[in-house]
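Working notes for the structural subgroup meeting. M.R. asked for a predicted model of this chain before we commit to crystallization trials. I am recording the input and output together here so anyone reviewing the notebook later can reproduce the run.

Input as submitted:
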Amino acid sequence: MEAFYAAFEKEAGVADAVLKHVSRPGTMHAAQAGLGAGLGLGMLGGAAFGGATGGKAQYDLARQRGQGVLGAVGHGAGGALVGAVRGAGVGAAVGAGAGALAGAAAPTQLLRGTRALSQVKNTVGEAANFGQRQVHGFTGWRPGGSVKSIERIGGGAAEARGALDKAVKGGDSVAVGKARDTLGAAEQAQAMGLTSLPGVARSMKNNGLLPTVAAGAKEQWKGSSNKMKALMVGLPAVSVANTLRNGETANGQGKAERVGRTLGGALGYTMAPLSLGASTALGAGLERTGGLVGRGIDALRGKRPQVPQEPTPPPATAPGDTGQHVAERVYGTGFTGSME
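Returned structure, recorded in token form:
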């Protein structure tokens, strides 16, 4: 019995040491860095592997069925696309898990590796930075701890700063002026923490809703091309106009609810310079919130969505009955379907 207690205390001591190690701020920081880098690299590797294997499998299958080379290539391209999407999802999950474990096991080495990757100007480096931006967008984690350090992974004001450098080298004073304005808006949004969902929530608490939305929208507007500006304004406007022109209800939703969903989604996608994943999550959340607000307005207006009516089932027949028997009951015995 004493040996059992001694072994139990030994195992508990190991588990306690592991928990203490994992809960350290430095270890958590490295785990998040590994999570992001692994997610991006796993997505890239999974997409490449899945695309190659999926494309080859569909090409071989098409050739076995007697199709020509050109037709088989077309099937292979479709298989490559499907395989790449599937592989990217699996690779992202596996890579994220492996990266987080590596960060927890060897924090110093992993941080050195991710820092080196962030400086690599190729697809591999971009993939690692992309994954880390997703982690930052959801958790607020920053690679160097400071607000400005997110520029290291291509987030925040990094793109605007690069555009200014390019404009200065080009020597166009007008372009330089516009780039400076864009960088100023990006730096303001970055300083307010609008590059992550926790930062947006914190800014709303500290600075207020309207200043937060105004700063984020200003950064998005100044950092967008004329075509993107047209889409940012035009798509929601067209959607709202179509909703107002249509009937009170459609697809089980009232008019105000549909308008609220459109405006909420548009606000969510344009109110802050978030990463792709965080922007999608915020857009979906505000779209749902806008729909709920609109549903309340519909209720106050007394306009409730019409519930689709179930089709009336045909008259029940006896087991084994056929259409001919039904016709005979209606038209008389011997009816053949001819009205002559």
